[in-house]
Design goal:
Blueprint (H helix, E strand, L loop, with lengths): L6 H5 L1 H31 L5 H27 L1 E3 L11 H5 L5 H36 L1 H4 L5 H4 L4 H34 L4 E4 L24 H25 L4 H18 L3 H19 L12 H17 L2 H21 L7 H86 L5 H28 L16 H9 L4 E6 L6 H21 L4 E8 L3 E8 L18 H11 L3 E6 L5 E8 L7
Helix pairs in contact: 2-3, 2-5, 2-8, 3-5, 5-8, 8-11, 8-13, 9-10, 9-12, 10-11, 10-12, 11-12, 11-13, 12-13, 12-14, 13-14, 14-15, 16-17, 17-18
Length: 610
């Protein structure tokens, strides 16, 4: 039968019970210690003795909160440790705990909030389990009851069905109560919650959510609002109808109708909750309206039938097929049992036919709702697959256009820039052999030009490789902070006077490349616009931040070439874009003595604050 719990729910029953029944004694112990301590501390605060007791109370509350986090982790919830304010040793450090709001929240949770939650969940679990045992064993212990209670026709069959339903739904109800405990207490415990997982101590178990790649319908804010509105309307209408037409006590009618409406609301998120509440509410409604079955539709009042169909529709659309079929089977079984236990000999023919017709209508209408819901779910899945296929196709088209454009740029760079750099490299490298009577200084100059052009050509080839591939920059060879020393040395070969203070820095590749490019751009600007000026290069780390400063003085007045070499004006803009992409900052501008300064700050881990 579809009502039989699956293997996953049975395997998580142990961890769920452990979470619930370890929480109650822990909370009772916390309340027994924290509440008296808090009261004594508050009463003696005027004498300053309570001020000294409050840190002890807050420390104990944090200890209990830590135990609660351990319980939730072992149950399967990823929750990190809370962040408390740092304290110092000694009395002054203990008094600083009074200003930590996180510890006060621990006190409120462990002393006040957790107690009713743990009592409710543990009591409900125990009552559900005892109800299942009582129903299943009624044929044994029921003989101890007075004869007028034991000999009621069909009572043992109803008790057996009720016990069987309670036993079958026990794993789902226990898991729902455990999740209720976790949902309420986890946000109050602080720390980062990474999402529920199944407990490690129950072995390897599959996740609640399907692992297939198919799009799965999920409840949205609009769907939740619609379901809640329909359930509210059903409860508002069913409550007085059940109380008046079936002569049911208003309190009982309220509880039964509210449970029937809540089944649809809970079923949108938790299918086991929808199944459990729907079956229990239907059984309670049958028992509550049984005395009036000859005067009104029974065993399914119209409002109960509508609530049951709403739950079936929600389960069919948002969850796998076996949840809705299990719920439909539960309704059909309850209908069949109610017909079997009904004493037909005391019922007129018209009433008996009405009862049977009511059951047939329930099975037929609810079956149609199930088929419509499953069809709607399949339509949603197909539509989601089509939308995802369109998205993937559009993404592939975008990537193809991007690769084509990158390929075009790479071809242009190769045919124009790389060719020109190759010519410069060959001309500078063969100058000493082609030109006669060159002195050593001129030959050295040509060799430096050849070396610089070869380096530029190598960087150009690396850039072309990046443009022609989809690999990330991390997989490509690139310059870093270790290459700044060679960069400074090559710049000195032009005759520039450069002093460098370079600390050894362990930086990520992207940070190292950005720092290298910043120094390269600053040196290039200094060599173009302030030839002959002194240049200072500093690379160091301050407070987990890479700090780079390049400062050049004004060009000497005796420089015969006063006109600076023109540039495109894009170098500093590119440096700012690189640095800001890593969360850093760039400061650049003229100095009071007529020079120019560039200062770069790049965080080594994460963006800068603010």
């Amino acid at each position: 039968m579809f009502l039989v719990p699956d293997r996953r729910s049975l395997r998580r029953l142990g961890p769920d019970l452990a979470l619930l029944f370890t929480g109650l004694p822990l909370t009772l112990l916390a309340a027994a210690l924290l509440l008296p301590l808090a009261a004594i501390s508050a009463a003696l605060a005027i004498l300053w003795v309570g001020v000294l007791l409050f840190p002890l109370t807050l420390t104990l509350s944090s200890v209990f909160a830590r135990w609660d986090r351990i319980r939730l982790r072992r149950w399967g919830l990823g929750i990190s440790e809370a962040r408390y304010r740092p304290t110092e040793p000694g009395a002054r450090g203990q008094l600083r705990r009074l200003g930590d709001p996180r510890r006060w929240l621990d006190l409120v949770l462990e002393g006040l909030v957790a107690l009713p939650i743990r009592v409710l969940t543990a009591t409900a679990t125990l009552a559900w389990a005892l109800g299942a045992l009582a129903g299943l064993g009624y044929a044994i212990w029921g003989r101890l009851l007075p004869p007028q209670l034991w000999e009621v026709p069909g009572q043992w069959a109803l008790a057996l069905v009720a016990g069987l339903l309670l036993a079958l739904t026990l794993p789902a109800v226990v898991h729902l109560l455990a999740r209720f405990d976790a949902v309420v207490t986890a946000p109050l415990l602080g720390g980062e919650v990474t999402g529920p997982r199944f407990p490690a101590w129950s072995g390897s178990m599959p996740a609640d959510l399907p692992t297939s790649s198919e799009p799965v319908p999920r409840e949205t804010a609009w769907s939740r609002m619609t379901i809640a509105f329909l359930a509210f309307v059903l409860v508002v209408v069913a409550w007085p109808v059940t109380a008046v037409v079936y002569d049911v006590h208003p309190a009982v009618a309220m509880v039964v109708t509210t449970a029937a409406g809540a089944a649809a609301v809970a079923g949108a998120r938790w299918p086991w909750a929808g199944l459990s509440l729907s079956a229990v509410a239907a059984l309670a409604m049958m028992l509550a309206t049984a005395p009036a079955h000859q005067a009104a539709p029974w065993p399914w009042p119209v409002t109960a039938l509508l609530a049951h169909c709403l739950t079936l529709a929600v389960l069919a659309v948002f969850h796998r097929w076996y949840w809705v079929l299990s719920t439909w089977s539960a309704g059909a079984v309850l209908t069949l049992v109610s017909l079997l236990v009904t004493d037909s000999s005391e019922m007129p023919d018209g009433t008996l036919r009405a009862v049977m017709t009511n059951g047939v209508v329930l099975v037929a209408i609810s079956g149609g709702v199930v088929l419509l819901g499953l069809t709607a779910r399949q339509w949603i899945l197909v539509r989601g697959q089509v939308e995802r296929a369109r998205t993937v196709s559009a993404e592939e088209m975008r990537r193809r256009r991007e690769l084509e454009e990158r390929g075009r740029i790479a071809r242009e760079l190769h045919d124009v820039v790389a060719h020109s750099m190759s010519v410069i490299t060959v001309q500078a490298g063969t100058a000493r052999f082609r030109l006669q009577h060159l002195d050593e200084a001129t030959v050295s100059e040509f060799e430096d030009i050849a070396a610089s052009s070869r380096q530029a050509l190598g960087e150009m080839r690396a850039l072309l490789a990046i443009l022609r591939t989809e690999d990330s920059l991390d997989e490509m060879p690139m310059q870093g902070l270790d290459d700044v020393e060679d960069l400074v040395a090559s710049s000195r070969s032009t005759g520039a006077r450069i002093t460098a203070e370079l600390e050894e820095v362990q930086a990520p590749p992207t940070v190292g490349l950005t720092g290298y490019r910043a120094v390269q751009e600053a040196l290039s600007n200094a060599l173009r616009h302030a030839r002959g000026a002194e240049i200072e290069v500093r690379v160091r780390v301050r407070d987990s931040t890479l700090v780079i400063s390049v400062l050049n003085g004004p060009p000497p007045a005796s420089d015969p070439l006063q006109d600076p070499i023109p540039g495109a004006g894009l170098g500093l803009a590119g440096t700012r874009e690189r640095v800001r992409a890593l969360g850093g900052s760039v400061e650049s501008g003229p100095t009071p003595d007529g020079g120019f300064a560039l200062r770069v700050r790049i965080p080594l881990a994460g963006p800068l604050p603010g």
